[in-house]
Design brief:
- The structure is a single chain.
- This protein is 19% helix and 17% strand.
- It has 130 residues and is of the alpha+beta class.
- The protein has one domain.
- The strands form two sheets. It has a three-stranded antiparallel sheet, with no helix packed on it. A two-stranded antiparallel ribbon has the order 4-5.
- Strand 2 and strand 3 form a beta hairpin.
- The longest helix has 10 residues.
């Protein structure tokens, strides 16, 4: 904005120009969706499940990276053993749908993580070990 335009604005109270701001919609993605908001295919769900830590003697129950038990058939549910596919680097921070960026998380841990990155469940707000 030039000095003349600022002076006119100050004297008249009306800007001598039209300010146009492009509309950029903010898209809220649902859990268990790709960067484009589509549901993950079964092959991806299975590949992400394989990344979970196996529990001794059980192939349908595993642990997420924070130690919460998740169940294969509880994918996409908010149950005791429900789990979701998490983007390690959030989509909002440039994360992709590459398998290396996906992890299985209990739904409560995924909610707590949200869009934070880096994220560690075992640190408090000041960054101290809990």
């Amino acid at each position: 904005m030039s000095i003349l335009q600022l002076l006119l604005l100050r004297l008249t109270g009306d800007p001598p120009f039209t300010l146009r701001v492009p509309f950029i919609p903010i898209v809220q993605r649902s859990p268990n969706t790709t960067a484009d908001g589509e549901a993950f295919d079964r092959a991806t769900v299975d590949a992400v499940w394989e990344k979970a830590q196996r529990e001794y003697g059980f192939h349908l129950f595993r642990k997420d990276r924070y130690g919460k038990t998740i169940g294969y058939h509880h994918f996409g549910t908010k149950t005791k053993y429900g789990w979701e596919i998490d983007h390690i680097i959030p989509v909002s921070a440039g994360g992709t749908d590459d398998l290396e960026n996906l992890q299985p998380l209990h739904w409560e841990n995924n909610e707590a993580k949200g869009e934070k990155y880096p994220y560690d469940l075992f640190y408090d707000k000041e960054g101290n070990d809990e």
